Amino acid sequence: MAASASRRPTPSGSARLSIGQVLDLLHEEFPDLSHSKLHYLEAEELISPERTASGYRKYSRADVDRLLFVLRAQRDRFWPLKVIKEHLLEHGVDGDGDVTSIASRPGPTSQIQPVRLDRRGLLRETQVDEELLEELESYGMLEEGLVFYGASELEIVRAARVLADEGLHPRHLVMVRTSVERQAHMLRSVAQPHSRPTDAAARGQAQSLAEELGESLNSLHNALLRKQIHRGG
């Protein structure tokens, strides 16, 4: 059974955390989380920390739980922010920001659960051998030297195993990786004009826009691929 994502402690009782303390608290699970991301999520009304008389943000336990829910729904369910906002408006947050109990939404990644696996755990969960992992690393589909693997790596290895069982090994799939790299560059280029170096919220908005455009591009790719497969049948 897949190991669940690590659970960091959240403030108890009436304790309030500064934005720096929140970033420190969540760093292990979300090392790329930044001030700009938090400012953007606040601007989008997904989180609403209190403000002191001096204007400093202060996060309660409920604020941290809500933030965890948003971040995990993005990472583990690949939900766009508008879908997360709709869910929060309808259901709120239950528990410590866990997303494993969310009712499934349409899409190929809707069933992905939060995971944090070491290399041995990844081999066990995917039932592949070390040779396939090394081949995935050598062709740039898995990052070398990772200590822990998350939902994305688990999905990559599982898909690679299915393809390898039918004779499509990582060396045959380099064009897929290079295509993804070009697409990611294209989406970052589209989103970049929305970012401004001096505006933290705008930088967060650009990142989230690229992620949401990526989800739409993924849906387009899947639809076109299905159409081509059926046409060739």
In short:
The protein is mostly helical and 233 residues long. The chain has helices at 19-26, 35-43, 61-77, 81-91, 119-126, 130-138, 151-165, 174-191, 200-232, and strands spanning 50-51, 57-58. α2 (35-43) crosses α9 (200-232).
Describe the structure.
The protein has helices at residues 19-26, 35-43, 61-77, 81-91, 119-126, 130-138, 151-165, 174-191, 200-232; strands at residues 50-51, 57-58. It is mainly alpha-helical and 233 residues long. A two-stranded antiparallel sheet has the order 1-2. It is globular. Helix 2 (35-43) crosses helix 9 (200-232). It has 3 domains: 8-112, Multidrug-efflux Transporter Regulator, Chain: A, Domain 2 (Orthogonal Bundle), CATH 1.10.1660; 119-172, no CATH class; 174-232, no CATH class.
What is the element layout, followed by pairings?
Layout: H1 19-26, H2 35-43, E1 50-51, E2 57-58, H3 61-77, H4 81-91, H5 119-126, H6 130-138, H7 151-165, H8 174-191, H9 200-232
Antiparallel strand pairs: 1-2
Helix pairs in contact: 2-9, 8-9
Residue windows where pLDDT falls under 50 for at least 5 positions? 1-9, 103-112
Largest sheet: 2 strands, antiparallel
Number of helices: 9
Taking Cα atoms only, what radius of gyration do you get, to the nearest Å?
Answer: 19 Å
